[in-house]
Amino acid sequence: MATVEALVRDIASPQDLQVALAGGKPVVLHFWASWCEPCKQMDAVLAQLASDLPGIACMRLEAEAVDDVTIQYGVTTVPYFIFLRGGEVVDRLEGADPPTLTAKTTALARGGGVATSSGTAAAAASSAKAAGAAAAGGDVSGGTDSGGAFGRIKYLLSTWPVVLFMKGSSEAPRCGFSGRVVEALSKLAVAFKSFDILRDEEIRQGLKEYSNWPTYPQLYVRGELVGGCDIVTEMAGTGDLEALFREKLGPEYKAVAAAAVGAEAPPATAAAAAAATAAPTVTPADAAAAAAVPATTADSAGSVRERIKALLSGPSPVVLFMKGTPEAPRCGFSRRVVEALQAESLEFSSFDILRDEEVRQGLKEYSNWPTYPQLYVRGELVGGCDIVMEMRANGELGNTIREMAHRMDVP
């Protein structure tokens, strides 16, 4: 099969889209983000469909780079698909769902309703499924149902005594909650296997059903769920977490956990985790380049960090770095977070990163979080749109934010 780039046209501006829509073919438009692993998997599926169904035009648009189009179509999450015929929206699909994308795309190509049982649809579904599995590094012969996910989860839990399903890695957590659990484990010097659920949508969704626990991170010891961030940090504070490790792994729990992790890198210490969050890994080439940079550049980077710290330590405990303002968001992701915070009656201050390129770029390095919006409580990163919306859907956004603000106020 040809590459994704050869089969799926990139749209870089509203003008590009207008030209593409004028081509006359029905269009499948994929709104994606470079940081989103499921988007990459769905790109492979879309490319296969473009190859199998030449009567349609498949396109993709980076949601945060072309805000005007994202807002125009009401897109607030990625991956997201818009199906157009004659320039008009005829269907939508939210999330990484290869079978549904295949059915809707086949229906669009045929000009009728969704068809899931025809030979063409079945063939396209099979090839799209294979492409998606290959992109995810999975077995193309197996399904993507919860049974397959359960098997992989059981393997992870049976191989390592301490497993943390989290957002990001132990060296670079991608949300504040995951970072706090990593810090709690690091303070006890417990080696663990971390699994980045942002890189595997099948595990991310399957684990919720497996554990009957709706949020992340999730910590397991000897295959048993301990809990999420609040439970782990509370147990760490009372000494119950160490007692649990002694009970499950024995008096030499540190050695047992370290031996199981084996050749893998040990978990980051609290200081290392903080350093990883504050700055990216530096390669020899980076170091050489940095040596050639005038001191004024380094001073400038330092001043940006100080500005960010000042913004985060202001009078408002909750700070949202966003595109636009709460009254006039400039992207769907920012609007969605604002609406979620307002629905919970949470007071917050905001900073429009579109008005300050220095802060916009500096904050990505400061937080090790590549996109906007970014929500902070007392200087601690909560996360972006997906995390905020997941917390809201689980009914825990308001209480968690208030608890974090209160806990950080108490000396």
Question: Notable features of this structure?
Answer:
alpha/beta; 19 helices; 4-stranded mixed beta sheet; Glutaredoxin; 411 residues; 5-stranded mixed beta sheet
Overall description:
Helix content is 51%, strand content 15%. It is α/β, with parallel strands linked by helices. The protein has 3 domains: 133 residues, Glutaredoxin; 130 residues, Glutaredoxin (3-Layer(aba) Sandwich); 131 residues, Glutaredoxin (3-Layer(aba) Sandwich), CATH 3.40.30.10. A 5-stranded mixed beta sheet has the order 1-3-2-4-5, with helices on both faces. Strands 7-6-8-9 form a 4-stranded mixed beta sheet. Strands 11-10-12-13 form a 4-stranded mixed beta sheet. Helix 8 links the parallel strand 6 and strand 7. Helix 5 packs antiparallel against helix 6, helix 8 packs parallel to helix 10 and helix 15 crosses helix 17. The longest helix has 18 residues. The protein is globular. The termini are far apart. About 17% of the residues have low confidence.
Write the topology of this structure.
Blueprint: H1 4-7, E1 9-11, H2 14-21, E2 27-32, H3 37-52, E3 57-62, H4 67-72, E4 80-85, E5 88-94, H5 98-110, H6 119-136, H7 146-159, E6 162-166, H8 176-187, E7 193-196, H9 201-211, E8 218-221, E9 224-227, H10 229-238, H11 240-249, H12 253-261, H13 270-278, H14 284-291, H15 295-312, E10 318-322, H16 332-343, E11 349-352, H17 357-367, E12 374-377, E13 380-383, H18 385-393, H19 397-409
Parallel strand pairs: 1-3, 2-3, 6-7, 10-11
Antiparallel strand pairs: 2-4, 4-5, 6-8, 8-9, 10-12, 12-13
